[in-house]
Amino acid sequence: MKVLKGNLKGRNLISPQHIRPVAVRIKKACFDILREEIEGKKILDLFSGSGSLGIEALSCGAKEAVFVDIKRDCVEKIKQNLAFFKLTAKSEVHLKDAFRAIEDFYKNGETFDLIFLDPPYYKGMLRKALQALRDYDILTPLGYLVAFCYAKDEFVNNDGRFFLIVHKNYGQTLVLIYKKQEIPKD
Description:
CATH architecture: 3-Layer(aba) Sandwich
Largest sheet: 7 strands, mixed
Distance between the termini: 48 Å
Strand order of the largest sheet: 3-2-1-4-5-7-6
CATH topology: Rossmann fold
Number of strands: 7
Strand content: 25-35%
Order of helices and strands: HEHEHEHEHEEE
Helix content: 25-40%
Structural class: alpha/beta
CATH superfamily: Vaccinia Virus protein VP39
Number of domains: 1
Number of helices: 5
CATH class: Alpha Beta
Shape: globular
């Protein structure tokens, strides 16, 4: 697995053996779409695995990335990758359940400009993560959610808070990009 864009382009990432990383062509397409929305932004990489999405964002100019994974070996690999690329000063890594992390970030008043969601397939976790992000609003106004899921998984088109702006099928993987819509206050 390699970094595809930015100042780290072509560099290899260390990856835990048990994860399903986002395929190269899918990651490239996603970052091509988001090119203008990354520089200077604060990124959250939930269900991080190797941290490839957050590291790719840092390589493309994100100011900060926060990584969350529940598996200790994933967190260790993320920390190794960040140290190798000298990105530890621009990042935080949490060994924590993604849903608990969302709630904790909300309680601490932390917000993110772009959130990556790449949960394990076949478990309905994307729908649950979107619900948690509705309940605990940690996305900045007009921010983006980028989700990856199995092509046959259920997902939400629009729910009044997040509006689906990109829906692309890449074989068995679906890429969904939502934009946050601020709800007008009365």
